[in-house]
């Protein structure tokens, strides 16, 4: 069974270069994040490159410090690598939580229909129009010293409606397919129909929901950090950008401090979006060739 | 609320004569458009009420005591230099709508908001009411954001149509892939790079504020020039990224239309390609983009907070961040309420106007 899934995934990727490129970029980033402690150690050698005053302050990029050092004498490359890992973790945590909540809401609403759908959809719609950024800023006031996981939970409070909306539309279209009717006629229970008939067919859209929630979560945290309201103790890529702005890296010409995090995040957003569009292209026949070549 | 195929308005009269039923149901079947408008308006009210309520309780549950902050700031300014008595604190509580339990606070707030459009006093510039503080910064945001949003919509629609029209060609493919890669990049990143290049490295354009403080605000050429000069970088960063998103969605709407029979016919008739593109293809796919534009206004607001903050632009975003730093509940809530109200109203108006613009759109049965 796992072998079959793997083959199916590989076949899908082969058919969509966009999906392949997106996943490849993500994979490289995840690998860098996973091995970030080793990379940081490799950069520092005997000293910890993230320690305050590990080196001289504001060193320009050179062979010893590929991206220079910051205002506290920390190695920028080492900081960026470990911050990337934090950003990815936030995306993964918030992405998983909001996808799970979104999937549950979408299935209950889309499959049950009727007034339950009415109430849930209206509620999702209401949450969608509330601008999330002010609420997120307000939430950050609660959270001065919180763990990475708590930040993820905080952000996913606002990102699940997007996932729910995307998936519900698909549940609605799948619900009336003949094979679902067949399962219903043969007296399968609701839960059984959902897990064996609907869920496998919705996997790509759940993937889309996950990618967009992760994207939203990373962006949300970066936004908080950039205006200096991020939760303390979490150093993600946004925090580095905030430091760069606040310490005057712009005027000092210390461009690696903000250009590198921005390029990395842009690459990450591009990769997630490519996965999104790639998945939709492959699994939504109406779009096949539409968004493509 | 799905798009239903005809028979709708035209058959109204025949139904009327066929079934002389009375009551609401009959009226609704005789006036489908009006019934749809009433139902849609009802949904609007429910959504508006729900969103405002959620926002209210969300911010009230925030920790921190704004009255203490106010008294501290008054003491710092020597307006008030004795220890605050319980009586005075109670008076301020009443003024800020913070007395009584949460439910009565909510009722008082909603009553003032609906009947008088009153958001309560602000804290960041006490005793000015929050609605005045917001109204002062609103024109800046509308000016910057409104113009940038409209421009990126127009550019995106035009470029997206061309990208769809010339699909398969190298230029179109580059544009599509570029859009996919860049459409989700925060405005703020582009803004930061632009500031670094044009303001700090080259020194061509200013990096902060909305106009030259040496020029008196007014309808003078110098002031308008200064406005444009200062608004160029923040506006450009929004337009650059915003356009990519619209290119992608327009292209996705455009390509299926290009396969339609009536386009083949138009081509066979010998119409000029430009005319086919604008009058036949684009006209049939731009309406969903009008709706999407209304919805997008709210999301642009999210990203815009950061851009305004970076440029120290005196708009809603900067006001919001200042208000949050000083625990100014009334202003924070007011900004959120305005964003909610404008998005919902925009979507409502577009939903009501769309059936008039496009005869194919039928929401009613």
TrEMBL record, chain A:
Q: Which InterPro entries does the entry link to?
A: MetI-like (IPR000515), MetI-like_sf (IPR035906)
Q: Which GO BP terms apply?
A: transmembrane transport
Gene Ontology annotations for the cellular component aspect, listed alphabetically:
plasma membrane
Is the Transport keyword given for this protein?
Answer: yes
Q: Where are the transmembrane segments?
A: 20-40, 76-107, 119-142, 148-167, 202-224, 258-279
Provide the ABC transmembrane type-1 domain boundaries.
Answer: 84-276
Topology with regard to the membrane? Multi-pass membrane protein
Localisation per UniProt entry = Cell membrane; Membrane
Keywords, ordered alphabetically: Membrane, Transmembrane, Transmembrane helix, Transport
Instruction: Identify its protein family.
Output: Belongs to the binding-protein-dependent transport system permease family.
Spell out the PANTHER family in the cross-references.
OPPC IN A BINDING PROTEIN-DEPENDENT TRANSPORT SYSTEM (PTHR43839)
What name is this protein filed under? ABC transporter permease
UniProt source species: Kribbella albertanoniae
From TrEMBL, chain B:
Annotated Pfam families: BPD_transp_1
Q: Which residues form the ABC transmembrane type-1 domain?
A: 138-354
Quote the InterPro entries the UniProt record gives: MetI-like, MetI-like_sf
CDD domains (alphabetical): TM_PBP2
Protein name, as recorded = ABC transporter permease
Family note: Belongs to the binding-protein-dependent transport system permease family.
What SUPFAM superfamilies does its record include?
Answer: MetI-like
Which GO BP terms apply? transmembrane transport
**Membrane-crossing residue ranges in chain numbering:** 41-59, 142-165, 185-207, 227-248, 285-307, 338-357
- Name the GO cellular-component terms: plasma membrane
Organism classification: Bacteria, Bacillati, Actinomycetota, Actinomycetes, Propionibacteriales
Cite the entry's keywords alphabetically. Membrane, Transmembrane, Transmembrane helix, Transport
- Give the membrane topology, semicolon-separated if more than one: Multi-pass membrane protein
In the UniProt record, the signal sequence range is: none
Name where it's found.
Cell membrane; Membrane
């Amino acid at each position: 069974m796992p072998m079959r899934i793997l083959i199916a995934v590989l076949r899908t990727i082969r058919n969509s270069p966009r999906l392949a490129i997106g996943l490849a970029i993500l994979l490289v980033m995840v690998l860098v994040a996973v091995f970030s402690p080793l990379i940081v150690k490799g950069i520092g050698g005997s000293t910890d490159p993230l320690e305050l005053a590990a080196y001289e302050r504001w060193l320009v990029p050179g062979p010893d410090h590929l991206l220079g050092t910051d205002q506290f004498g920390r190695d920028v490359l080492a900081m960026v690598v470990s911050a990337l890992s934090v950003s990815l973790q936030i995306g993964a945590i918030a992405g998983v939580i909001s996808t799970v909540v979104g999937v549950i809401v979408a299935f209950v609403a889309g499959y049950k229909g009727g007034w339950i759908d009415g109430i849930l959809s209206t509620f999702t719609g209401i949450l969608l129009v509330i601008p999330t950024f002010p609420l997120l800023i307000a939430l950050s006031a609660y959270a001065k010293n919180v763990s990475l996981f708590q930040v993820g939970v905080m952000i996913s409070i606002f990102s699940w409606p997007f996932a729910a909306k995307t998936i519900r539309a698909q549940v609605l279209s799948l619900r009336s397919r003949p094979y679902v009717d067949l399962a219903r006629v043969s007296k399968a229970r609701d839960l059984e129909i959902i897990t064996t008939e609907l869920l496998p067919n919705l996997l790509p859209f759940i993937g889309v929901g996950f990618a967009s929630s992760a994207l939203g979560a990373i962006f949300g945290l970066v936004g908080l950090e950039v205006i200096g309201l991020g939760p303390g103790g979490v150093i993600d890529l946004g925090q580095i950008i905030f430091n760069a702005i606040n310490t005057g890296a712009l005027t000092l010409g210390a461009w690696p401090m903000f250009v590198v995090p921005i390029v990395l995040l842009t690459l990450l957003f591009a990769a997630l979006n490519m996965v999104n569009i790639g998945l939709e292209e492959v699994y939504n026949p109406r779009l096949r060739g539409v968004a493509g070549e | 609320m799905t798009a239903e195929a005809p028979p709708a308005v035209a058959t109204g009269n025949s139904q009327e004569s066929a079934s002389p039923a009375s009551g609401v149901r009959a009226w609704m079947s005789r006036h489908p458009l009006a019934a749809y408008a009433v139902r849609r308006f009802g949904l609007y009210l429910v959504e508006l009420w729900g969103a405002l309520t959620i926002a209210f309780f969300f911010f009230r549950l925030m920790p921190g005591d704004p009255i203490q902050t106010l008294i501290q700031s008054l003491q710092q300014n020597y307006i008030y230099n004795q220890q605050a008595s319980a009586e005075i604190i109670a008076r301020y509580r009443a003024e800020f709508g913070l007395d009584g339990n949460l439910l009565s606070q909510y009722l008082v707030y909603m009553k003032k908001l609906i009947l008088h459009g009153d958001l309560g006093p602000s804290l960041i510039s006490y005793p000015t009411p929050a609605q005045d503080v917001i109204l002062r910064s609103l024109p800046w945001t509308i000016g910057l954001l409104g113009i940038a949003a409209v421009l990126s919509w127009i550019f995106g629609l035009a470029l997206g149509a061309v990208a769809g029209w010339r699909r398969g060609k190298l230029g179109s493919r580059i544009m599509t892939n570029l859009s996919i890669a860049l459409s989700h990049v925060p405005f703020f990143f582009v803004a930061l790079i632009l500031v670094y290049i044009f303001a700090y490295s080259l020194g061509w354009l200013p990096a902060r504020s909305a106009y030259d403080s040496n020029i008196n605000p007014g309808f003078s050429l110098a002031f308008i020039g200064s406005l444009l000069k200062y608004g160029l970088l923040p506006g450009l960063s929004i337009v650059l990224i915003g356009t990519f998103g619209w290119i992608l969605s327009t292209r996705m709407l455009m390509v299926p239309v290009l396969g339609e029979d009536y386009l083949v016919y138009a081509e066979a008739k010998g119409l000029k390609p430009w005319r086919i593109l604008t009058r036949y293809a684009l006209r049939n796919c731009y309406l969903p983009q009008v709706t999407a534009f209304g919805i997008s206004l709210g999301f642009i607001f999210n990203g815009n907070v950061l851009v305004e903050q970076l440029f120290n632009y005196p708009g809603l975003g900067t006001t919001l961040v200042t208000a949050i730093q000083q625990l100014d509940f009334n202003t924070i809530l007011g900004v959120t309420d305005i964003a909610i109200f404008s998005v919902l109203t925009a979507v409502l108006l577009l939903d009501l106007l769309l059936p008039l613009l496009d005869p194919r759109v039928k929401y009613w049965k």
